[in-house]
Write a structure and sequence with these properties.
2 domains, about 10% strand, Ubiquitin-like (UB roll), about 170 residues, alpha+beta, about 35% helix, DNA polymerase, domain 1
Length: about 170
């Protein structure tokens, strides 16, 4: 069964050592997913697999046989940006833009986690199914995605605009 990338079936690479990141960038020519540290520490390569965020540099493509992978390119529907993509533009949530695709995919995965009631290290009430997405909760949940150029405040504002009300 092929991997589905942004809604289209893609055959598995013949070499089982190919990372999901390299499949996306080098073989499928999807440049949005970035190779930052290539060690899983920066989050620039974050994509969604079956709705959950993963760092694609640490994942072998063959592990995702039959699964749905969505990259930042796959968030656009009929030429319309995902609401979070629009919020990043509106709040200047990027300067160099290198981390932006990973930040956006990670935030979408984070919102799904909150919706399922998954607590973070700073969640006050671990028994609640309703988690308030405040700045501290957001910063903790997004701590695996680094921004080196200083767009952090715009990133936080963009994510809060789109997801704070939905999380409450």
């Amino acid at each position: 069964m092929p991997i589905k990338v942004n809604g289209s079936p893609v055959p598995l690479p013949s070499d089982p050592r190919v990372s999901l990141l390299d499949l996306l960038r080098e073989q499928l020519h999807l440049p949005g997913t970035k190779k930052g540290c290539n060690q899983g520490a920066c989050g620039a390569c974050t994509v969604l697999v079956d709705g959950e965020r993963i760092v694609s540099c640490l994942a072998l493509a063959v592990q995702y046989d039959g699964r749905e992978v969505v990259t930042v390119e796959g968030l656009v529907e009929n030429g319309v940006l995902h609401p979070l993509q629009g919020a990043f533009v509106e709040h200047d949530g990027f300067q160099c833009g290198y981390c932006t695709p990973g930040q956006i995919c990670s935030a979408i995965g984070m919102a799904t986690e909150i919706g399922r009631g998954v607590p973070s290290h700073v969640t006050v009430d671990l028994s609640t199914d309703v988690i308030t997405l405040d700045r501290d909760e957001l910063r903790e949940r997004m701590s695996g995605n680094l921004c080196r150029c200083g767009a952090h405040n715009g990133i936080v504002d963009a994510i809060l605009e789109v997801y704070a009300e939905a999380a409450e």
